[in-house]
Design a protein that fits this description.
D-Maltodextrin-Binding Protein, domain 2; five-stranded mixed sheet; three-stranded antiparallel sheet; 10 strands; alpha+beta
């Protein structure tokens, strides 16, 4: 259900996992803390940018950056922005290698949900004072780039997850979107009665993304996954076991399959009726008409609702893209001016119009181009109250361990209690990477 890096494919998982191990060694002993982080960077001047600024970004939302920066180039004729788009499956490895070698660009796009690994390297410069207004962004999106109250990145786009469902199946069965965990399985059974083969298409990669799924449910069940000072994992608690038990119920009740659909099959399965719903990101909304090969199919057949609430609430998960400027940049002032330009509401609306990336600046959501899309309203609601994944450098490794263990739970080969004890033992070995 949860996917880092929009529109990416499974090869990203392999590259990111390999790169994570290398960076974690650095991160374990170098993450900035509240006591070592200084203050916001020195303010930059209001003059035009000059010189050549180098920028790296993964393929996907950044593919149209050259066009998006046309306004910046017009306003800053003496500046050149060299955009390098790196295939998403290679991006994390190349970026982390550059950090280790000291050969970073001036600006790099960071995945909002996993940038703690880059923050841990101390390679980024703090955001200059007055560059942006913190309160103009979704809180969790901005907080993902903060360490000790100091921001090291600026959000560019943001997304969370909502329940997309076949409203035609729901209408036929006479069911309405679930508001709580208790209502979810009955709703999904209703979708099956209305025509779906399975009520929901759960992403069955059984990897770190499956681990993130469980983390989200654990948040909804009152867990923080970490102790107060972030030095120990808390994964075998009643809250996490309860989340695993709830997730298991999707499979034991017959509304989800542990075998299909795979990530790339989810949209065709939804269109064909093999599944009646997905918990997924906003990019799906803009792609379903093409999958159905029928303009207007999405509007006629798809509904969107906020996530059903667990005992602690219906917390969503914040993902997206942010921009960071490296401390070694020789064009820092001009680089930050590029970042400031990309953070403007008008620029983010243009990015949405061109590519469908949801704005990280809340004011941009009032623009008719965004506000006029009814299926996007639940995403705004989820982003307002979204939470970060654990902001420690070893989260990816721990999430992978959770995902692997959850396959045994889904297949009925292991109890949630036993699975979480196994995960806790593994996580104790990995540690949190924090001091």
């Amino acid at each position: 259900m949860i996917r880092q890096g929009r529109r990416t494919t499974r090869p990203l998982r392999v590259a990111a996992a390999a790169a994570t191990a290398a960076l974690a060694l650095v991160a374990a002993c170098s993450r900035p803390s509240a006591t070592t982080a200084a203050s916001a960077g020195a303010a930059i001047d209001d003059g035009p940018a000059t010189g050549t600024v180098t920028l790296w970004a993964p393929s996907g939302d950044a593919n149209g950056l050259d066009a998006m920066l046309a306004g910046f180039k017009k306003a800053n004729p003496d500046a050149t922005v060299q955009v390098t788009i790196i295939p998403s499956d290679d991006y994390q490895t190349k970026l982390q290698t550059a950090i280790a070698a000291g050969t970073t660009p001036d600006i790099a796009q960071l995945y909002t949900e996993s940038q703690s690994q880059v923050l841990a390297s101390k390679a980024l410069a703090p955001v200059p004072a007055g560059l942006v207004d913190k309160s103009s962004f979704f809180p969790a999106a901005y907080a993902a780039g903060e360490v000790g109250g100091v921001a090291y990145s600026v959000p560019w786009y943001a997304y969370s997850y909502v329940l997309l469902y076949r409203k035609d199946f729901a209408a036929k069965a006479g069911v309405t979107p679930p508001r709580t965990w208790d209502e979810l399985v009955p709703f999904l059974k209703g979708l099956q009665a209305g025509g779906a083969v399975k009520g929901i298409g759960y992403d069955v990669g059984w990897d770190r993304y499956s681990g993130q799924d469980l983390a989200l449910l654990a948040y909804q069940n009152g867990s923080t996954l970490l102790n107060a000072d972030r030095t120990k994992w808390e994964l075998d608690t009643p809250q996490v076991v309860g989340a695993a038990t709830f997730l298991q119920s999707l499979f034991t009740s017959g509304v989800a399959s542990p075998d299909t659909p795979g990530f790339l099959d989810q949209q065709p399965y939804l269109v064909s009726g093999k599944v009646g719903s997905l918990i997924t990101g906003p990019w799906v909304v803009s792609q379903l008409d093409a999958v159905a090969k029928q303009p207007g199919w999405t509007a006629a057949n798809i509904g969107a609702a906020v996530l059903p609430a667990g005992p602690a609430g219906n917390y969503g998960f914040v993902g997206g893209g942010s921009w960071g400027v490296f401390a070694k940049s020789k064009q820092a002032a001009s680089a930050w001016k590029v970042v400031k330009y990309l953070s403007q509401p008008s620029t983010q609306v243009a990015q949405f119009t061109a590519y469908g990336s949801l704005p990280a600046v809340t004011a941009a959501w009032k623009d008719p181009a965004v506000a006029g899309q009814p299926l996007l309203a639940p995403y705004f609601t989820q982003l307002e109250g979204a939470k970060q994944m654990p902001d420690v450098s070893t989260w990816t490794e721990v999430a992978t361990a959770i995902g692997k263990e959850m396959e045994f739970v889904a297949r009925g080969k292991e109890t949630p209690e036993a699975a979480m004890k196994n995960v806790q033992s593994r996580a104790d070995t990995i540690s949190t990477g924090a001091k």
